[in-house]
Specification:
mainly alpha, 142 residues, single chain, elongated
């Protein structure tokens, strides 16, 4: 397969896998930590109006969803890519970081969560993913 096509497909599949993991964790989160009484989390408007009711524990799963989703997408991309695995894994991190910035701008959240989420969930997790994949590939060569 053409390397450019393979790398492009690796990024697309990485975004899809990362998004599926992210949404799976978000959908599962309300059954583990129920939202506060009176919160309508079925619409963006409902969340915007009731975000002030959320406590710190309610932000655990969104952070995990962002971090694990980014990690899964970056691992997938690094495994599937023909070459430039490191750059492409970081592209996944940048894509999800941009999505996180859009999310922060559209949904009000506490500043501490915004900082932690944007600083630790995206680029560091894609870097961890590429280090994990590249370390495994180096061991396999010997």
């Amino acid at each position: 397969m053409n390397p450019i096509l393979r790398n492009t497909l690796a990024v697309i599949v990485g975004i899809i896998i990362g998004s599926i993991v992210n949404m799976s964790i978000i959908l599962m989160s309300s059954s583990i930590i129920p939202p506060p009484n009176g919160v309508d989390n079925s619409t963006m408007e409902g969340l915007q109006k009731t975000m002030h009711l959320f406590e710190a524990e309610h932000f655990l799963f969104p952070f995990l969803a962002h971090a694990v989703g980014t990690f899964a997408g970056a691992v997938t991309t690094a495994i599937l890519a023909f070459n430039q695995k490191k750059k492409l894994a970081l592209v996944i991190g940048a894509f999800f970081l941009l999505s996180g910035i859009v999310s922060v701008c559209s949904l009000p959240s506490p500043r501490w969560f915004t900082f932690i989420d944007l600083a630790f969930a995206y680029i560091p997790m894609s870097y961890l993913a590429l280090r994990t994949v590249c370390k495994k590939e180096t061991r396999l060569q010997y």
